[in-house]
Known about the structure:
Helix content of chain B: 40-55%
Number of helices of chain B: 8
Structural class of chain B: alpha/beta
Strand content of chain A: 15-25%
Largest interface: A-B, 30 and 21 residues
Radius of gyration of chain A: 20 Å
Shape of chain B: globular
Helix content of chain A: 25-40%
Number of strands of chain A: 9
Oligomer: heterodimer
Number of strands of chain B: 6
Order of helices and strands of chain A: EEEEEEHHHHEEHEHH
Largest sheet of chain A: 6 strands, antiparallel
Shape of chain A: elongated
Amino acid sequence: MLPGAYAKAMEWRAEGILLNVRRHGEHAAILDLFTKDLGRHMGVLKGGASRKMAPLLQPGAQLDATWRARLDAHLGAYSVDLIRGRAAEAMDDRLSLAGLSAVCALLSFALPERHAYPGLYARTLALLDGLGADRWPEAYLTWELALLEETGFGLDLSACAVTGATQGLAYVSPRTGRAVSAAGAGEWADRLLPLPGALMGLAGGDPVEVVAGLRTTGHFLTDRLAPALGEKPLPPARQRLVDLIALRAQPRST
Amino acid sequence: MADAPKDIEALIEIMARLPGLGPRSARRAVLHLIKKRGPLMRPLAETMTRVADTARECLNCGNIGTADLCPICTDDKRANGQICVVEDVADLWAMERGGAFGGRYHVLGGTLSALDDIGPEDLRIPRLVDRVTAEAVTEVILALNATVDGVTTAHYIADAMAGSGVSVTSLAQGVPIGGELDYLDDGTISAALRARKAV
């Protein structure tokens, strides 16, 4: 029996975050759902391409889904109920909408199907529920760190890879993902990635620090995670979000 | 049941690929056309051949016409300084059915989409920016779908227009004519409430 989900042979019921919807034929749609205990799971929703369903099936929606199939290997069919829609609220604010798109696109990009990530699911839920909050970009950066961690490309920011020092950490090695102190970096400093306080939860919401942190996580998403997934390009939704955060980080002219 | 002759089967197969038709309905449609060969099938075939030879996208706005410039772009009365941006030609036709808009259009040919990897360079956004300057446009009306991709595209276009001095507006969202609140989704009700107006 799956914890937190009602399941029997080739049928389960669980809550999930809708990552994307792809039209399937004229009337149906294939849903890509991220659930706590089953991870990313696809299925066909009959009538999913209808006008009636369109408002419910926007990315980020929290759905109560039942999945059925004759064999486990089959794509299977969904029936869904909306628990909470997030797109309508996010549409009022550029950053929220870009954030919603980036989170859904990155999950769809990075996670394998049918592999549970309960920790990442809980963090994603909290992140999406906090859309529009003042320090949301900082929370997003922390979420990207968690995504890297869960997919096997986590950063080790506990101590300097060269000296072992735990203080004065200023860089991240682009190869190993380990922290490096200013003293340990020496003449290699210009080849290392920045380690802003935001990556260690110290920034206090400073958007400049968040942008610097996103530059570092972006390196590992592009140069480590993407090649492992078959050189798929990183979803452009992430870059749009980073551009918007960077725009807000710029000093406003009076 | 014996199959129809090879040519007729081929026609049924092609018809079955049309939206709204399946193999059975395509078979019925073909049978009907064959029975009405003179008054229906021949004019249909001739018209389809003619349209297949002449139909093309308007070089200016992306609408479908039979000349390099569509009738809307060549009509001087439509040059009122307003451009309505739509996702697809079907949306343009829907706007024209209402008859409420007297300006010109710009068909993007889609929306930005992370899933389908459609970026700004895949849409007619650069051409829209050129038109705003060339046609002395004062207002760009974004009539895009109220979906995550549609609104993301609207934000992108608004950003691209920033600093041009052009007013960028979008269609209102809310209760449709004849709509009942009980049947509306939460998001639409929230949007309608936020966009409420004095009566």
